[in-house]
Design goal:
By secondary structure, the chain is mainly α. It has three helices and no strands. The chain starts with 6 loop residues before the first helix and ends in a 14-residue tail after the last helix.
């Protein structure tokens, strides 16, 4: 699995996932908050399966140096 999520997006995903997951414990206390597990996992791993299928890559690619 090659990383396809940039650093800023990874942080946003983890924060949003934690916010959703908190709905299980505070607020309406609904199990729908468990959906927050997915953004947390993709944010921590840096790889998003739908991005791979669609060919999306928000990760900055470092230019490779060519040996001369």
């Amino acid at each position: 699995m090659e990383r396809n999520i940039g650093d800023v997006e990874r942080v946003v995903r983890v924060v949003a996932g934690l916010g959703l997951l908190s709905l299980v414990f505070v607020g309406p206390q609904t199990l729908w908050g468990l959906i927050g597990i997915m953004p947390i996992l993709t944010g921590l791993s840096g790889w998003c399966p739908p991005y791979s299928l669609l060919g999306i890559n928000t990760c900055r690619v470092k230019p490779e140096s060519k040996p001369e």
